[in-house]
What we know:
alpha/beta, seven-stranded mixed beta sheet, six-stranded parallel beta sheet, 25% helix
Amino acid sequence: MTLPAPGRPLQQVWRQQLPQPGPGQVRIRVAACGVCRTDLHIVDGELPWPGHAVVLGHEIVGRIGALGPGVAGLAVGEQVGVPWLGWTCGRCAHCLAGRENLCPQAEFTGWQREGGHAEQVLADARYVFAVPPGYDDAQAAPLLCAGLIGWRAYAMAGPQARRIGLYGFGAAAHLIAQVAVHQGREVMAFTRPGDAAAQALARSLGAAWAGDSGQAPPQPLDAALLFAPGGALVPEALRAVRPGGTVVCAGIHMSDIPSFPYAWLWGERRIVSVANLTRQDGEDFMRVAAAVPLQVRTHTYPLAQANQALDDLRAGRFAGAAVLVNASAT
């Protein structure tokens, strides 16, 4: 399913030959691929267009079909996942410092590199993760972005954050809420006004409170994690956190943040952003996902219905994560 240009619907394209993995690459037969809000940002032209048609999808789960030259530690038939960060140079100061998520030459799956809204995909073997046991293909797919970005945002809040607010209770929040509850933290969920389904899901997963994003929480927050792309939520979250608290902006794109009184920031409150992920994030989170385990709420669609999945995500017609599945791959 190919996006020919921003603002256009995805088009079904058939290719006559299987892609052949080059040095350091693997070919994966895609079984499932999550549909992420970042996909909408690409469709809507909110992220720079890479100059060529795009195969979206960066929450890929499938089985290795072929290994390119030089690949070690992976086997044909192995179930694996591919995340948003798809390639880095390995030589820049950021890569050498273990902050490869900031590599200026990085390439991203489903944006500069072809993604998983397809039956087959090539991936850099360095950025392929083993899938934790206990998850089927559709359940595992959201772990590769919603889970990983949620985990990085959660870690950035710090171990001292015992009461955490989650703004935008979708794919990422419904996973990281379970991690936080499992680790003994108190979770408060903020949803679109009137989204009773998302609020009910939050409570069922252990949230101590759930309400509209414009409401004040019952008690001040130690940290607020923003998964919704609305910049207007930043001042709201600042007002909700205690002095010394942190607001973590977890999206790759967000609308402009409106001005707000300095008094809302004062008191050593912090605003920080999350950029992409590292392989260490992936390894750490997959261990957590194996140990908890997580209830992954999915809404599945056949690959050919990718446009419908994107529309439903945009309209907020479900609570949880949308996943495209390839019935022929299972």
